[in-house]
Fold each of these.
Amino acid sequence: MKLVFAAVATALLAASPAMAADDGGFYVGAGVGSFGVDVDGFSGDDTGFKVLGGWMFNKYIGGELEYIDGGTVEDSGFGIDTTALNASVKGNWPVTEQFDVYGKVGYFFWDADVDLFGDSSQEKNESGSDLSWGIGAGYDFTENFGIFGEWQWFQIEEADADMMSVGVVWKF
């Protein structure tokens, strides 16, 4: 965890001279896609969604906060319902005026409800925090409105989870 905070602090300090530059600002958005979980013979996916907000300090670096609902992933008689907050540092590369690619690394604060169908005595709730990372691309139709597609990976204790999503972004 100290390594994550050190990386974030280093990135922010490196970007500080350029923070006054144009092409930064606040944005909000929403996305929908496939959320999958894979652990010890359990593998499944469901439709997930996210709402997000962020601040680009300049056109190259920013921070983002997401609320993610992974739906209920079901397999072999039980399901996992996951919700989370994901805080990330986002590195952006503007390929053209309208198209950019990015990567992000962050921390995933999750809550998972595990349900064995038909046996309420076997239900349990777990929560924790683990690393997250992702890649994506965005296209701006106007100065304020754009779309994005991204693939994110999350570690949830022993489970590997991922989300492939598309969405819209409104920039202020």
Amino acid sequence: MRYLHGALALVLLLFAGVQYNDPDFYLWIPLYLVPALWAGLAALRPDLLGRPLAVRGLVLCLAAALVGTAMIWPTDPGWWRRDVWWESEAAREGMGMMIIAASLLALTATALVRRRRSR
């Protein structure tokens, strides 16, 4: 799992890095960095991920990501098709929030399993 979380951290850092030319980069870079930091913690210090404070922080970040995903869910018909999201900023942003939420969901599941095993 450490390698998987490390790879996830690198991918999320890459996503944050390519936001430099986005008009609202000041919003999207931190949004990608939050799960990247959690994934880095899971990769480098997995023992910390099962602690109660870390679990609470992850659940809070996941809840915020789910609310954000619901708020900017793509409304374009066929938003998952390349020809649509290639042209639609709203579709790309919605998909970005889905990636963030999915990453945080996987990390929260890992943290909850770790917490259960440590009891």
Amino acid sequence: MKIEQLIKSKIERNYFFITGKVQMNTKYFIDEIEKGIRDENNKSFQTNLISEMTDWKYFLSNKKFIDVALKFNDLVEQEDLTEGKRWTLQEAWGFKQSIGNYTQSHDHFPAMVSGAIMLSKHQQSLLFPEIKKELKCEPGNFVLFSSYLKHGNKRNLLDSCRYGLSFNYMNKFEN
């Protein structure tokens, strides 16, 4: 084998990062997450979330989640976050991070747009180290972001739980 050239480097890349607050019944969703993590199809401790979580599609047929998601759908369209590509909401799950739990650094590629909504007040923030941003864990705080952005959080050192919802918009023709 003869290697002519090997380059390992970084390039600048366009991304989006939108934060805000959404009104929703956080207690309802926390109760639903508690149900979902007891379901036999849960993904607890099987993913980058080193914690309890529901199945990837647990909230896709939940009427109250869909009501909230429609607000995000409008934002995705209004800001053309998918750059004209056809998209659909493909995944929506909930998580519970108890003492000792954390999220390994990861991304959501090949999703086009990813999001998270915090449901409880907690000191454990969602960190985006590449862009030096974080989402504070306050009920209703949300983020929509370019799915290739790495994110995660540190180990929960408190004896209280952090609850949230995450979701992905995918290219309609790739799934």
